[in-house]
Amino acid sequence: MEVVNCTNPQTKKRKKNPLPEGQFYYELGTCSKNNDLAGALALYETAVSQSLRLNHNHYNILIYLCSSSLPDLSSPEAGDAVENPAIDKGFSIYNQMLEKGINPTEATITAVSRLAAAKGDSDFAFELVKTMGKYNAVPRLRTCDPALFAFCHKMEAEKAYSVEDHMVSLGINLEESELSALLKVSVETGNQEKVYSYLHKLRNCVRCTSVKTSDIIESWFSSKLGSEVGCLNWDENRIKSIMLKNGGGFHGQGWLGKGKWVVSRSTVSSKGCCCNCGQRLDCVDIDRVETEKFAEMIASLAMKREAKSNFSDFQAWLDRNSNYVAIVDGANVALHQQNFADGGFSISQLEAVVKELYETSQRKWPLIILHNKRYRSLTANPSNRKILDWWRAQGALYTTPNGSNDDWYWLYAAVKLKCSLVTNDEMRDHIFEFLGSSFFLKWKERHQVHYTFVKSNLRLKMPPSYSLVIQESEKGSWHIPVEGEFADETSRKWLCVTR
Protein backbone atom coordinates (compact mmCIF):
# COMPACT_ATOMS: atom_id res chain seq x y z
CA MET A 1 0.00 0.00 0.00
CA GLU A 2 1.35 3.38 -0.99
CA VAL A 3 1.99 5.78 1.90
CA VAL A 4 1.04 9.36 1.09
CA ASN A 5 3.03 12.10 2.82
CA CYS A 6 0.43 14.71 3.79
CA THR A 7 2.86 16.97 5.64
CA ASN A 8 2.73 20.52 4.39
CA PRO A 9 6.28 21.85 3.94
CA GLN A 10 5.06 25.35 4.78
CA THR A 11 3.54 24.08 8.07
CA LYS A 12 6.81 22.38 9.03
CA LYS A 13 8.69 25.56 8.28
CA ARG A 14 6.26 27.63 10.39
CA LYS A 15 6.74 25.32 13.39
CA LYS A 16 10.51 25.69 13.20
CA ASN A 17 10.33 29.47 12.69
CA PRO A 18 7.07 30.66 14.24
CA LEU A 19 5.78 34.16 13.62
CA PRO A 20 6.59 36.67 16.40
CA GLU A 21 2.95 36.82 17.51
CA GLY A 22 2.78 33.03 17.75
CA GLN A 23 6.05 32.81 19.65
CA PHE A 24 4.90 35.58 22.01
CA TYR A 25 1.60 33.83 22.73
CA TYR A 26 3.33 30.49 23.35
CA GLU A 27 5.85 32.00 25.78
CA LEU A 28 3.16 34.07 27.50
CA GLY A 29 1.13 30.90 28.04
CA THR A 30 4.16 29.29 29.66
CA CYS A 31 4.52 32.28 32.01
CA SER A 32 0.84 31.98 32.90
CA LYS A 33 1.19 28.29 33.77
CA ASN A 34 4.23 29.04 35.94
CA ASN A 35 2.68 32.18 37.45
CA ASP A 36 5.76 34.05 36.21
CA LEU A 37 4.79 37.72 36.32
CA ALA A 38 8.31 39.07 35.71
CA GLY A 39 8.74 36.89 32.63
CA ALA A 40 5.32 37.90 31.28
CA LEU A 41 6.06 41.62 31.73
CA ALA A 42 9.39 41.24 29.97
CA LEU A 43 7.61 39.58 27.06
CA TYR A 44 5.05 42.40 27.02
CA GLU A 45 7.75 45.09 26.81
CA THR A 46 9.34 43.22 23.90
CA ALA A 47 5.99 42.86 22.16
CA VAL A 48 5.31 46.61 22.51
CA SER A 49 8.77 47.48 21.17
CA GLN A 50 8.17 45.22 18.17
CA SER A 51 4.66 46.64 17.63
CA LEU A 52 3.09 43.18 17.84
CA ARG A 53 -0.69 43.00 17.66
CA LEU A 54 -2.11 41.74 20.96
CA ASN A 55 -5.63 40.42 21.38
CA HIS A 56 -7.90 40.30 24.45
CA ASN A 57 -6.48 36.89 25.51
CA HIS A 58 -2.96 38.35 25.71
CA TYR A 59 -4.13 41.33 27.74
CA ASN A 60 -6.23 39.13 30.04
CA ILE A 61 -3.26 36.90 30.86
CA LEU A 62 -1.04 39.88 31.62
CA ILE A 63 -3.60 41.67 33.80
CA TYR A 64 -4.53 38.44 35.58
CA LEU A 65 -0.87 37.75 36.45
CA CYS A 66 -0.59 41.27 37.87
CA SER A 67 -3.69 40.78 40.02
CA SER A 68 -2.78 37.27 41.16
CA SER A 69 0.39 38.59 42.81
CA LEU A 70 -1.75 40.50 45.35
CA PRO A 71 -3.03 39.29 48.75
CA ASP A 72 -6.08 37.01 48.84
CA LEU A 73 -9.29 39.04 48.78
CA SER A 74 -10.74 37.53 51.93
CA SER A 75 -7.49 37.74 53.93
CA PRO A 76 -6.99 40.36 56.66
CA GLU A 77 -4.69 42.36 54.32
CA ALA A 78 -7.35 42.72 51.64
CA GLY A 79 -8.77 46.24 51.47
CA ASP A 80 -5.63 48.00 52.72
CA ALA A 81 -3.88 50.07 50.07
CA VAL A 82 -0.63 48.27 49.26
CA GLU A 83 2.50 49.40 47.45
CA ASN A 84 3.05 46.94 44.64
CA PRO A 85 4.46 47.78 41.19
CA ALA A 86 2.23 45.08 39.72
CA ILE A 87 -0.81 47.27 40.43
CA ASP A 88 0.40 50.23 38.35
CA LYS A 89 1.64 47.90 35.63
CA GLY A 90 -1.71 46.13 35.52
CA PHE A 91 -3.58 49.42 35.11
CA SER A 92 -1.14 50.53 32.43
CA ILE A 93 -1.79 47.36 30.44
CA TYR A 94 -5.54 47.74 30.95
CA ASN A 95 -5.50 51.32 29.67
CA GLN A 96 -3.41 50.22 26.68
CA MET A 97 -6.04 47.58 25.96
CA LEU A 98 -8.82 50.20 25.96
CA GLU A 99 -6.78 52.55 23.77
CA LYS A 100 -6.43 49.76 21.21
CA GLY A 101 -10.21 49.51 21.11
CA ILE A 102 -10.31 46.02 22.63
CA ASN A 103 -13.33 45.51 24.88
CA PRO A 104 -12.62 43.96 28.28
CA THR A 105 -14.31 40.68 29.16
CA GLU A 106 -15.63 39.49 32.53
CA ALA A 107 -12.17 38.04 33.25
CA THR A 108 -10.58 41.42 32.51
CA ILE A 109 -12.96 43.33 34.80
CA THR A 110 -12.44 40.79 37.58
CA ALA A 111 -8.67 41.21 37.45
CA VAL A 112 -8.80 45.02 37.22
CA SER A 113 -11.27 45.14 40.13
CA ARG A 114 -8.74 43.22 42.19
CA LEU A 115 -6.08 45.76 41.24
CA ALA A 116 -8.36 48.66 42.18
CA ALA A 117 -9.27 47.12 45.54
CA ALA A 118 -5.61 46.47 46.32
CA LYS A 119 -4.80 50.08 45.43
CA GLY A 120 -7.42 51.19 47.94
CA ASP A 121 -9.89 52.40 45.32
CA SER A 122 -12.81 50.10 46.11
CA ASP A 123 -15.28 52.64 44.67
CA PHE A 124 -13.66 52.23 41.26
CA ALA A 125 -13.71 48.45 41.69
CA PHE A 126 -17.49 48.60 42.19
CA GLU A 127 -17.94 51.12 39.36
CA LEU A 128 -16.23 48.69 36.98
CA VAL A 129 -18.77 46.02 37.90
CA LYS A 130 -21.76 48.35 37.52
CA THR A 131 -20.69 49.49 34.04
CA MET A 132 -19.87 46.07 32.59
CA GLY A 133 -23.06 46.12 30.54
CA LYS A 134 -21.56 48.51 28.01
CA TYR A 135 -19.08 45.77 27.10
CA ASN A 136 -21.79 43.09 27.01
CA ALA A 137 -19.98 41.36 29.88
CA VAL A 138 -21.94 39.61 32.63
CA PRO A 139 -20.63 39.80 36.23
CA ARG A 140 -20.05 36.67 38.26
CA LEU A 141 -19.51 36.13 41.99
CA ARG A 142 -15.75 36.53 41.59
CA THR A 143 -16.24 39.82 39.70
CA CYS A 144 -18.08 41.44 42.61
CA ASP A 145 -15.86 40.05 45.37
CA PRO A 146 -13.05 42.67 45.20
CA ALA A 147 -15.37 45.61 45.90
CA LEU A 148 -17.43 43.69 48.47
CA PHE A 149 -14.47 42.45 50.51
CA ALA A 150 -12.71 45.82 50.30
CA PHE A 151 -15.74 47.74 51.58
CA CYS A 152 -16.22 45.20 54.38
CA HIS A 153 -12.56 45.41 55.37
CA LYS A 154 -12.69 49.22 55.51
CA MET A 155 -15.92 49.07 57.57
CA GLU A 156 -17.82 50.89 54.83
CA ALA A 157 -20.94 48.92 55.62
CA GLU A 158 -23.49 50.81 53.51
CA LYS A 159 -21.30 50.51 50.43
CA ALA A 160 -20.85 46.79 51.09
CA TYR A 161 -24.63 46.41 51.34
CA SER A 162 -24.95 48.23 47.99
CA VAL A 163 -22.65 45.67 46.37
CA GLU A 164 -24.75 42.86 47.83
CA ASP A 165 -27.95 44.48 46.52
CA HIS A 166 -26.39 44.76 43.07
CA MET A 167 -25.35 41.09 43.16
CA VAL A 168 -28.82 39.99 44.20
CA SER A 169 -30.38 42.07 41.41
CA LEU A 170 -28.18 40.16 38.95
CA GLY A 171 -29.21 36.79 40.36
CA ILE A 172 -25.75 36.12 41.86
CA ASN A 173 -25.90 33.87 44.92
CA LEU A 174 -23.57 34.83 47.73
CA GLU A 175 -21.59 32.06 49.44
CA GLU A 176 -20.29 31.70 52.98
CA SER A 177 -17.13 33.82 52.53
CA GLU A 178 -19.17 36.79 51.26
CA LEU A 179 -21.91 36.43 53.89
CA SER A 180 -19.29 36.01 56.61
CA ALA A 181 -17.62 39.29 55.58
CA LEU A 182 -20.97 41.09 55.56
CA LEU A 183 -21.84 39.58 58.93
CA LYS A 184 -18.53 40.78 60.39
CA VAL A 185 -18.94 44.38 59.19
CA SER A 186 -22.51 44.35 60.54
CA VAL A 187 -21.32 43.09 63.95
CA GLU A 188 -18.53 45.64 64.15
CA THR A 189 -20.74 48.57 63.10
CA GLY A 190 -23.53 47.47 65.43
CA ASN A 191 -26.22 46.89 62.81
CA GLN A 192 -28.34 44.38 64.72
CA GLU A 193 -30.96 44.05 61.98
CA LYS A 194 -28.32 43.13 59.41
CA VAL A 195 -26.68 40.68 61.84
CA TYR A 196 -30.01 38.93 62.25
CA SER A 197 -30.58 38.92 58.49
CA TYR A 198 -27.13 37.47 57.69
CA LEU A 199 -27.52 34.72 60.27
CA HIS A 200 -30.60 33.58 58.34
CA LYS A 201 -28.88 33.98 54.98
CA LEU A 202 -26.05 31.79 56.27
CA ARG A 203 -28.65 29.31 57.45
CA ASN A 204 -29.92 28.97 53.89
CA CYS A 205 -26.41 28.89 52.40
CA VAL A 206 -24.47 26.36 54.50
CA ARG A 207 -25.19 23.39 56.70
CA CYS A 208 -22.23 23.95 59.03
CA THR A 209 -20.39 27.24 59.47
CA SER A 210 -16.63 27.49 59.21
CA VAL A 211 -14.64 28.11 62.40
CA LYS A 212 -13.96 31.65 61.15
CA THR A 213 -17.67 32.37 60.70
CA SER A 214 -18.61 30.80 64.03
CA ASP A 215 -16.07 33.09 65.75
CA ILE A 216 -17.78 36.13 64.17
CA ILE A 217 -21.16 34.86 65.33
CA GLU A 218 -19.83 34.34 68.86
CA SER A 219 -18.39 37.87 68.89
CA TRP A 220 -21.90 39.26 68.27
CA PHE A 221 -23.54 37.29 71.05
CA SER A 222 -20.71 38.28 73.41
CA SER A 223 -21.07 42.00 72.62
CA LYS A 224 -22.81 44.60 74.79
CA LEU A 225 -25.19 45.56 71.97
CA GLY A 226 -26.02 41.90 71.36
CA SER A 227 -27.28 41.59 74.94
CA GLU A 228 -29.39 44.75 74.67
CA VAL A 229 -31.40 43.98 71.54
CA GLY A 230 -34.60 41.95 71.63
CA CYS A 231 -38.03 42.01 73.22
CA LEU A 232 -39.41 40.58 76.43
CA ASN A 233 -42.99 39.96 75.36
CA TRP A 234 -44.09 38.02 72.30
CA ASP A 235 -47.00 35.86 71.19
CA GLU A 236 -45.75 32.31 71.72
CA ASN A 237 -48.59 30.75 69.74
CA ARG A 238 -47.89 33.07 66.80
CA ILE A 239 -44.17 32.19 66.86
CA LYS A 240 -44.98 28.46 66.97
CA SER A 241 -47.39 28.84 64.05
CA ILE A 242 -44.80 30.71 61.98
CA MET A 243 -42.15 28.08 62.72
CA LEU A 244 -44.52 25.34 61.62
CA LYS A 245 -45.27 27.25 58.43
CA ASN A 246 -41.53 27.73 57.81
CA GLY A 247 -40.84 24.02 58.13
CA GLY A 248 -39.25 24.26 61.58
CA GLY A 249 -35.88 25.42 62.84
CA PHE A 250 -36.49 29.18 62.65
CA HIS A 251 -39.15 31.89 62.92
CA GLY A 252 -37.37 34.92 61.45
CA GLN A 253 -39.31 37.39 63.61
CA GLY A 254 -36.30 39.07 65.23
CA TRP A 255 -34.39 38.73 68.47
CA LEU A 256 -36.45 37.29 71.32
CA GLY A 257 -35.59 37.97 74.96
CA LYS A 258 -33.14 40.41 76.51
CA GLY A 259 -30.06 40.20 78.66
CA LYS A 260 -26.63 38.67 78.43
CA TRP A 261 -26.19 35.74 76.09
CA VAL A 262 -24.39 32.62 77.28
CA VAL A 263 -22.31 31.02 74.51
CA SER A 264 -21.20 27.44 75.12
CA ARG A 265 -19.57 24.71 73.06
CA SER A 266 -21.90 21.73 73.03
CA THR A 267 -22.80 18.51 71.22
CA VAL A 268 -26.18 17.15 70.14
CA SER A 269 -27.41 13.67 71.07
CA SER A 270 -28.61 11.15 68.52
CA LYS A 271 -32.17 12.08 69.52
CA GLY A 272 -31.52 15.72 68.65
CA CYS A 273 -31.20 17.18 72.14
CA CYS A 274 -28.55 19.79 72.94
CA CYS A 275 -26.30 18.35 75.64
CA ASN A 276 -25.86 21.81 77.15
CA CYS A 277 -29.34 23.37 77.35
CA GLY A 278 -31.48 20.29 76.69
CA GLN A 279 -33.42 21.90 73.82
CA ARG A 280 -34.60 19.49 71.15
CA LEU A 281 -33.54 20.59 67.67
CA ASP A 282 -35.87 20.37 64.68
CA CYS A 283 -35.68 18.15 61.64
CA VAL A 284 -36.18 21.06 59.25
CA ASP A 285 -38.60 20.73 56.35
CA ILE A 286 -39.17 22.94 53.33
CA ASP A 287 -41.76 25.61 54.08
CA ARG A 288 -45.38 25.60 52.89
CA VAL A 289 -44.76 27.88 49.93
CA GLU A 290 -41.83 25.74 48.78
CA THR A 291 -43.92 22.60 49.29
CA GLU A 292 -46.71 23.87 47.07
CA LYS A 293 -44.20 25.07 44.48
CA PHE A 294 -42.44 21.69 44.57
CA ALA A 295 -45.70 19.75 44.14
CA GLU A 296 -46.74 21.99 41.23
CA MET A 297 -43.35 21.52 39.58
CA ILE A 298 -43.60 17.72 39.81
CA ALA A 299 -47.16 17.76 38.48
CA SER A 300 -46.24 20.03 35.58
CA LEU A 301 -43.30 17.85 34.55
CA ALA A 302 -45.33 14.66 35.00
CA MET A 303 -48.16 15.89 32.79
CA LYS A 304 -45.70 16.81 30.03
CA ARG A 305 -44.18 13.34 30.14
CA GLU A 306 -47.25 11.34 31.17
CA ALA A 307 -49.72 12.73 28.62
CA LYS A 308 -51.03 9.28 27.71
CA SER A 309 -51.58 8.25 31.30
CA ASN A 310 -53.68 11.28 32.35
CA PHE A 311 -51.67 12.25 35.43
CA SER A 312 -54.42 14.75 36.27
CA ASP A 313 -56.68 11.79 37.10
CA PHE A 314 -54.25 10.81 39.85
CA GLN A 315 -54.19 14.38 41.18
CA ALA A 316 -57.98 14.40 41.42
CA TRP A 317 -57.98 10.97 43.10
CA LEU A 318 -55.39 12.15 45.62
CA ASP A 319 -57.47 15.22 46.45
CA ARG A 320 -60.31 12.88 47.41
CA ASN A 321 -58.04 10.41 49.23
CA SER A 322 -55.52 12.42 51.21
CA ASN A 323 -55.49 10.84 54.67
CA TYR A 324 -52.09 9.14 54.40
CA VAL A 325 -49.00 9.56 56.56
CA ALA A 326 -46.70 7.45 54.36
CA ILE A 327 -46.24 6.58 50.68
CA VAL A 328 -44.58 3.32 49.61
CA ASP A 329 -42.64 2.88 46.37
CA GLY A 330 -44.03 -0.64 45.86
CA ALA A 331 -41.68 -1.84 43.13
CA ASN A 332 -38.57 -0.56 44.92
CA VAL A 333 -39.45 -2.45 48.11
CA ALA A 334 -40.62 -5.68 46.46
CA LEU A 335 -37.65 -5.91 44.07
CA HIS A 336 -35.06 -5.22 46.77
CA GLN A 337 -32.32 -7.90 46.64
CA GLN A 338 -34.44 -10.07 44.35
CA ASN A 339 -33.31 -11.99 41.28
CA PHE A 340 -34.26 -9.74 38.38
CA ALA A 341 -33.43 -12.42 35.83
CA ASP A 342 -36.25 -14.51 37.27
CA GLY A 343 -38.58 -11.53 37.49
CA GLY A 344 -38.42 -11.81 41.27
CA PHE A 345 -40.92 -9.68 43.12
CA SER A 346 -41.26 -10.25 46.86
CA ILE A 347 -44.81 -9.48 47.94
CA SER A 348 -43.80 -10.58 51.46
CA GLN A 349 -41.23 -7.74 51.69
CA LEU A 350 -43.85 -5.25 50.62
CA GLU A 351 -46.30 -6.73 53.10
CA ALA A 352 -43.76 -6.39 55.92
CA VAL A 353 -43.25 -2.68 55.17
CA VAL A 354 -46.98 -2.01 54.96
CA LYS A 355 -47.65 -3.83 58.22
CA GLU A 356 -44.87 -1.96 60.06
CA LEU A 357 -46.11 1.43 58.84
CA TYR A 358 -49.69 0.52 59.77
CA GLU A 359 -48.75 -0.53 63.30
CA THR A 360 -46.51 2.47 64.00
CA SER A 361 -48.92 5.14 62.72
CA GLN A 362 -51.91 4.50 64.95
CA ARG A 363 -53.32 1.99 62.47
CA LYS A 364 -53.35 4.28 59.46
CA TRP A 365 -52.83 2.63 56.10
CA PRO A 366 -49.96 3.86 53.92
CA LEU A 367 -50.48 4.39 50.19
CA ILE A 368 -48.71 1.82 48.02
CA ILE A 369 -47.94 2.98 44.47
CA LEU A 370 -47.65 0.10 42.00
CA HIS A 371 -47.58 0.06 38.22
CA ASN A 372 -50.67 -1.56 36.64
CA LYS A 373 -48.52 -3.89 34.53
CA ARG A 374 -46.84 -5.21 37.70
CA TYR A 375 -50.21 -5.48 39.47
CA ARG A 376 -51.72 -7.59 36.69
CA SER A 377 -48.80 -10.00 36.60
CA LEU A 378 -48.95 -10.43 40.38
CA THR A 379 -52.66 -11.17 40.51
CA ALA A 380 -52.07 -14.30 38.41
CA ASN A 381 -51.04 -15.82 41.75
CA PRO A 382 -54.16 -16.34 43.98
CA SER A 383 -52.31 -15.63 47.23
CA ASN A 384 -50.90 -12.40 45.84
CA ARG A 385 -54.31 -11.40 44.52
CA LYS A 386 -55.83 -11.85 47.96
CA ILE A 387 -53.27 -9.48 49.55
CA LEU A 388 -53.53 -6.89 46.78
CA ASP A 389 -57.32 -6.93 46.79
CA TRP A 390 -57.31 -6.48 50.56
CA TRP A 391 -55.03 -3.43 50.26
CA ARG A 392 -57.18 -1.98 47.51
CA ALA A 393 -60.30 -2.46 49.64
CA GLN A 394 -58.62 -0.50 52.44
CA GLY A 395 -57.70 2.31 50.04
CA ALA A 396 -54.03 1.47 50.48
CA LEU A 397 -53.18 0.70 46.84
CA TYR A 398 -53.07 2.85 43.72
CA THR A 399 -52.03 1.31 40.42
CA THR A 400 -50.53 3.66 37.86
CA PRO A 401 -51.78 3.27 34.25
CA ASN A 402 -50.00 1.54 31.40
CA GLY A 403 -47.40 3.73 29.75
CA SER A 404 -46.74 5.67 32.95
CA ASN A 405 -43.62 6.06 35.06
CA ASP A 406 -44.69 5.36 38.62
CA ASP A 407 -41.82 7.50 40.00
CA TRP A 408 -43.82 10.65 39.29
CA TYR A 409 -46.79 9.26 41.23
CA TRP A 410 -45.13 8.29 44.48
CA LEU A 411 -42.99 11.43 44.54
CA TYR A 412 -45.92 13.74 43.88
CA ALA A 413 -48.07 12.02 46.53
CA ALA A 414 -45.35 12.26 49.18
CA VAL A 415 -44.74 15.96 48.49
CA LYS A 416 -48.38 16.94 48.10
CA LEU A 417 -49.48 15.16 51.29
CA LYS A 418 -46.35 16.21 53.22
CA CYS A 419 -45.74 12.66 54.40
CA SER A 420 -43.00 10.04 54.56
CA LEU A 421 -41.78 8.19 51.48
CA VAL A 422 -40.48 4.64 51.86
CA THR A 423 -37.95 3.95 49.11
CA ASN A 424 -34.24 3.28 48.71
CA ASP A 425 -34.32 5.08 45.38
CA GLU A 426 -31.94 8.01 45.84
CA MET A 427 -33.79 9.86 43.07
CA ARG A 428 -30.76 10.56 40.93
CA ASP A 429 -32.30 9.38 37.65
CA HIS A 430 -32.83 11.72 34.74
CA ILE A 431 -36.44 12.47 35.65
CA PHE A 432 -35.33 14.00 38.95
CA GLU A 433 -32.68 16.19 37.31
CA PHE A 434 -35.45 18.55 36.23
CA LEU A 435 -36.35 19.27 39.85
CA GLY A 436 -33.10 20.99 40.73
CA SER A 437 -31.52 20.86 44.16
CA SER A 438 -32.54 24.11 45.88
CA PHE A 439 -35.00 22.40 48.22
CA PHE A 440 -35.13 18.84 46.82
CA LEU A 441 -32.26 17.64 49.04
CA LYS A 442 -33.76 19.29 52.13
CA TRP A 443 -37.10 17.64 51.38
CA LYS A 444 -35.46 14.21 50.92
CA GLU A 445 -33.63 14.46 54.23
CA ARG A 446 -36.85 15.21 56.06
CA HIS A 447 -39.20 12.73 54.32
CA GLN A 448 -37.34 9.74 52.87
CA VAL A 449 -37.46 6.49 54.86
CA HIS A 450 -34.84 3.90 53.90
CA TYR A 451 -35.17 0.20 54.67
CA THR A 452 -33.14 -3.00 54.91
CA PHE A 453 -33.96 -6.67 55.33
CA VAL A 454 -31.55 -8.52 57.59
CA LYS A 455 -32.29 -12.25 57.52
CA SER A 456 -35.79 -11.39 56.29
CA ASN A 457 -36.33 -9.01 59.21
CA LEU A 458 -37.35 -5.50 58.22
CA ARG A 459 -35.56 -2.45 59.55
CA LEU A 460 -36.80 1.01 58.68
CA LYS A 461 -34.31 3.86 58.82
CA MET A 462 -36.39 6.92 59.65
CA PRO A 463 -35.31 10.48 58.74
CA PRO A 464 -32.75 12.02 61.12
CA SER A 465 -34.19 13.34 64.35
CA TYR A 466 -32.68 16.79 63.70
CA SER A 467 -31.17 18.80 60.85
CA LEU A 468 -27.57 19.90 60.61
CA VAL A 469 -28.26 23.59 60.09
CA ILE A 470 -28.30 26.85 62.07
CA GLN A 471 -31.44 26.76 64.23
CA GLU A 472 -33.38 29.49 66.00
CA SER A 473 -35.83 28.39 68.68
CA GLU A 474 -39.27 29.68 69.60
CA LYS A 475 -37.74 30.93 72.86
CA GLY A 476 -35.01 32.93 71.11
CA SER A 477 -32.01 30.67 71.63
CA TRP A 478 -29.66 29.65 68.80
CA HIS A 479 -27.70 26.53 67.85
CA ILE A 480 -24.94 26.79 65.24
CA PRO A 481 -23.15 23.67 63.89
CA VAL A 482 -19.43 24.11 63.20
CA GLU A 483 -17.38 22.44 60.46
CA GLY A 484 -14.90 19.72 61.40
CA GLU A 485 -13.98 16.07 61.15
CA PHE A 486 -15.78 13.93 63.73
CA ALA A 487 -16.13 10.20 64.31
CA ASP A 488 -19.92 10.63 64.22
CA GLU A 489 -22.47 13.43 64.35
CA THR A 490 -22.89 13.17 68.12
CA SER A 491 -19.28 14.41 68.43
CA ARG A 492 -19.81 17.50 66.26
CA LYS A 493 -19.30 20.83 68.03
CA TRP A 494 -22.20 23.29 68.13
CA LEU A 495 -22.44 26.80 69.50
CA CYS A 496 -25.28 26.77 72.03
CA VAL A 497 -26.45 30.36 72.57
CA THR A 498 -29.03 31.07 75.28
CA ARG A 499 -30.11 34.08 77.35
From TrEMBL:
Q: Name one Pfam family in it.
A: PRORP
Record key words, sorted: Hydrolase, Magnesium, Manganese, Metal-binding, Nuclease, Repeat, tRNA processing, Zinc
| InterPro entries linked to this entry | PROP1-like_PPR_dom, PRORP_C, TPR-like_helical_dom_sf
- Extent of the signal sequence: none
Q: Required cofactors, per record?
A: Mg(2+)
Which GO terms of the molecular function aspect are on file?
metal ion binding; ribonuclease P activity
What reaction(s) does this enzyme catalyze? Endonucleolytic cleavage of RNA, removing 5'-extranucleotides from tRNA precursor
> Which residues does UniProt call coiled coil?
none
Q: Which family does it belong to?
A: Belongs to the PPR family. P subfamily.
Protein's UniProt name? ribonuclease P
